[in-house]
Amino acid sequence: MSPSQWPVWIVDGSSGEAAPATLWDEATENHIRDTEARWGPWMRDLIASHLPPLREESRHWDWRRKMEYYRGQLGVRSFAIECGGETQGLMIGPLDRCSFVLQYD
């Protein structure tokens, strides 16, 4: 089954304006690759610059490892948001704590 997509709006952090985006009900391999390409070098530099306790704390940004761990678990779902053709965010959450309210005007 292919992931579902919904049109949503997010706030552009640089302009403060609303921007059209797409919410995916599953983070795909493309989302993970996009996140690794955009944030990977920055995160590696950040982790390398931290003292050991902060290094461990920052390792949770490894989305590939997270997705591999949770893949196939029925009680967990992943999500992605795209805007302007780029992944803006990823999320993994337990289904017993997730609910959607989609509002169309």
Key words describing this protein structure:
105 residues; alpha+beta; 4-stranded antiparallel β-sheet; 34% helix; globular
The count of helical stretches stands at 3
Helix content: 25-40%
Number of domains: 1
User: If you average the pLDDT, what whole number results?
Assistant: 81
Helix/strand order = EEHHHEE
What is the number of E strands?
4
Q: In order across it, which strands form the biggest sheet?
A: 1-2-3-4
Low-confidence stretches: none
Characterize the structure shown.
With 105 residues, the protein is of the alpha+beta class. It has one domain (5-97). 34% of the residues lie in helices and 30% in strands. It has 3 helices and 4 strands. The protein has helices spanning 29-49, 52-58, 63-70; strands spanning 5-11, 18-24, 76-83, 86-94. It has a 4-stranded antiparallel β-sheet with strand order 1-2-3-4, with helices on one face. A hairpin with a 6-residue loop joins strand 1 and strand 2. The radius of gyration is 15 Å and the shape is globular. The mean pLDDT is 81.
Describe, in short, the structure shown.
With 105 residues, this protein is an alpha+beta fold. The protein is built from three helices and four strands.
